[in-house]
């Protein structure tokens, strides 16, 4: 199977071109675990087949490194758009991508003939508890108490097609996502589990973020997580609706615009291509 390794702010993926080779998706959960292994495989946070679509330019599926399937991924959609354009598979600056979360639209920013950044229309955030999904009474989950191991945390929950639980902290460097992350991810309040973002507000337009991802654990960045963080920061009144989300590997610009869509701008890089014996 031919593949291309890509990364967005160090959140890395094995992309598989399903336009030019036949793929058996039934085997992808098992393949994701093997190929994402950093010692025995290619090494990645996820496996992402790109397939022909009846309703869009491409159908993108996302398998986490534990084999579970996610509805959406912000970092890989930027990488996929750049890959499709540069490999002449979709020669458009605005590409319609079908995902399990719906159609998302990345737009390539090209300077001097090079794709420098990708800006993605990530659609509308979903804020109703049942849409996260989260158990409990109807309404939004904003600055709500959630107890873990006897400690009460204040959480805000946002779905960007996939679930996110945001916890604002005074100092993100003092947080250990590997200790707390799994406790939030598998909390019974989240029936489909959740991604977890720890966020420190720096000022009205900047935050620092660390992430624990559902199905992948600690990753260097999370695009949908940055979008959910931008929305949560505005909902809590900590920032305006244009927020730079800093990660240890760089930053994503998040705008929750007047049309209620969230726009994410950030980099995308191809790393190498290869053949996996599958
Ligand atoms: N890293 C991604 C999100 C990947 C999916 C996530 N782990 C989930 O299960 O929802 C991003 O950049 O958004």
Q: Could you give a short description of this structure?
A:
The chain has 278 residues and is of the alpha+beta class. The chain is built from 4 helices and 19 strands. It is globular and about 50 Å long.
Keywords:
278 residues; binds ligand LBFN2T5F; Diaminopimelate Epimerase, Chain A, domain 1; EC 5.1.1.7; Diaminopimelate epimerase; diaminopimelate epimerase activity; 2 domains
The level of helicity is 10-25%
What's the mean pLDDT score? Answer: 98
Cofactors, ions, other ligands? the ligand N[C@@H](CCC[C@H](N)C(=O)O)C(=O)O
Low-confidence stretches: none
Order of helices and strands: EEHEEEEHEEEEEEHEEEHEEEE
Task: Report the end-to-end length measured between terminal Cα atoms.
Answer: 6 Å
Biggest sheet character: 19 strands, mixed
The number of helices is 4
The CATH topology name of the largest domain reads Diaminopimelate Epimerase, Chain A, domain 1
Radius of gyration: 18 Å
CATH superfamily of the largest domain: Diaminopimelate Epimerase, Chain A, domain 1
Q: How many domains, in number, for the residues?
A: 2
Strand fraction band? 35-45%
Q: What top-tier CATH class of the largest domain fits best?
A: Alpha Beta
The dominant shape is globular
Q: Based on DSSP secondary structure assignment, what is the total number of beta strands?
A: 19
The secondary structure category is: alpha+beta
């Amino acid at each position: 199977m031919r593949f291309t390794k890509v990364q967005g702010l160090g959140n890395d993926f094995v992309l598989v071109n399903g336009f030019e080779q036949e793929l058996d998706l039934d085997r992808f959960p098992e393949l994701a675990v093997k190929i994402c292994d950093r010692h025995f495989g290619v090494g990645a946070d996820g496996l992402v087949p790109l397939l022909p679509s009846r309703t869009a330019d491409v159908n993108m599926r996302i398998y986490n490194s534990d084999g579970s399937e996610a509805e959406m991924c912000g970092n890989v959609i930027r990488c996929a758009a750049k890959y499709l354009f540069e490999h002449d598979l979709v020669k458009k600056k605005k590409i319609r991508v079908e995902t399990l979360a719906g159609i998302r639209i990345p737009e390539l920013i090209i300077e001097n003939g090079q794709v420098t950044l990708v800006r993605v229309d990530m659609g509308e955030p979903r804020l109703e508890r049942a849409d996260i999904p989260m158990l409990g009474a109807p309404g939004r989950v904003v600055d709500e108490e959630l107890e873990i191991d006897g400690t009460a945390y204040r959480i805000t929950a946002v779905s960007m097609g996939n679930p996110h639980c945001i916890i604002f902290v005074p100092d993100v460097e003092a947080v250990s996502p590997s200790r707390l992350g799994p406790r939030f991810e598998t909390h019974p309040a989240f029936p489909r589990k959740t991604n977890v973002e720890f966020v420190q507000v720096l000022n009205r337009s900047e935050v620092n973020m660390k992430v624990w991802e559902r199905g992948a654990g600690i990753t260097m960045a999370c695009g949908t997580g940055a979008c959910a963080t931008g929305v949560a920061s505005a909902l809590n009144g900590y920032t305006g609706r244009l927020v730079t989300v800093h990660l240890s590997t760089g930053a994503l610009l998040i705008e929750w615009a007047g049309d209620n869509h969230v726009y994410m701008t950030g980099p995308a890089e191809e790393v190498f291509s290869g053949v996996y014996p599958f």
